[in-house]
Amino acid sequence: MKKRLKIRLSENDIIFEDDNYIALNKKAGWPVHKTLDPMRDNCTDALKSYLKFREDGKSPYLVLVHRLDVETAGILLFAKSKEANKYLQDLFSSHQADKIDKRYLAICSGRPKTDEGTIENFIKGQREGRKEKMVVVSSGGKKAITNYWVKDFKNDYSLIEFQILTGRKHQIRLHAKSIGHPIFGDPIYSNSKEQDGQRLCAYKLSFFDKFSNQKIDLEIRPVFDLDNFRTKISDEFKYIIFNKPYNVLCQFGKDHKDQLSLIDYNLPKELYPVGRLDKDSEGLLILTNDGKYKDRMANAKSKVEKTYLVQVDGDITNEAIEELKKGVVIKDNYKTKPAKVKKIESNLVKVEQRDPPVRFRKNIPTSWIEVRISEGKNRQVRRMCAAVGFPTLRLIRTAIGNIKLGELKLGQFEFFDGQ
């Protein structure tokens, strides 16, 4: 039977109150509004009940003027009067840091290339089943701007302060993901399977109050920091996915100084690739210090399915695709096992530009296919495509088993839970 989520507030949960405002220290996992789930309490109703009980049954005026995601902890500010509600609505909608300053702390995987910076792009919602996920877009979205500062770094994790200058849904979570350093425990934008909630807290809120003619500074201490942050990942084995660019050796060493290898991408020390990816191929590469995991994933007997996005020379035919599905003869007279192959319309392929770009020939078209195989002969996918008369121009690995490349940018990496 499903357990009911009960929210029972006390005076210890109230971090600030005057005649116009009341601020609540929201815990991770508490919804801010009513949800469709009747078994879940919410912060707004819980605070109304607390105030009504405190005021001997008198129903309070209470309006929440902003929101926090369910798994985000931190300061939640309510208006206690119509005048205060209008004033706060104007402040929050202004998105001006000199009027209202919103700060968050988060534990993120890895360390950004610079210890401070600004993330600015356009984002919009994208429906995936019953859930909506925010994505970065080149057009058609809303502008999102976030400043960040790295406060501490230990055991391959950073404590980062974020300041949002716009108020978009999932803004910090998506922006952390977009720079290759997702928030630990984020159920949507990271590969972590951590069950204790994401490490994100709205820990500071400052604004000028026209009613008292003074600045109000609210601040709480997050329940997490890097000193008390211990996970199975950081204490024992580490697992990361890396989006390997073209022309990068799948090793840390170099034959000469002009080569590019894994050592050029600030990857964590003492992690080693699971399998390999050719120098002229791109995409998902798993690295770990877990020898058993490495052997299990790389062992041919495990039959882990690998997915590739392949651009081929020419408009590939249905006959060629059927041949690939059944298996074709490649080097050393080896016939490949049956594969899963389908054509992908070019307008549906969303990949970053390669550097250098693929050669372009005006009179010869190109096409894209997705290939899934559970074996791993040397340059197998390239040789399969060549065997049916459509040589490979570009090869991108997008998944190994259930580990997916997702929206990770070229040259970036992120941690995941290998267990």
UniProtKB/TrEMBL annotation:
Gene3D superfamilies in the cross-refs: Alpha-L RNA-binding motif, Pseudouridine synthase, Pseudouridine synthase I, catalytic domain, N-terminal subdomain
EC top class, as a word: isomerase
PROSITE patterns attached to this UniProt entry: PSI_RLU, PSI_RSU
SUPFAM superfamilies reported for this sequence: Pseudouridine synthase (SSF55120)
EC identifiers of the protein: 5.4.99.-
CDD domains registered for this protein in UniProt: PseudoU_synth_RluA_like
Domain Pseudouridine synthase RsuA/RluA-like, residue spans: 20-177, 238-387
Pfam families: PseudoU_synth_2
UniProtKB keywords: Isomerase
NCBIfam families with a match to the protein in the record: pseudouridine synthase
Family according to the record: Belongs to the pseudouridine synthase RluA family. Belongs to the pseudouridine synthase RsuA family.
Identification of the protein by name: Pseudouridine synthase
Organism: Halobacteriovorax vibrionivorans
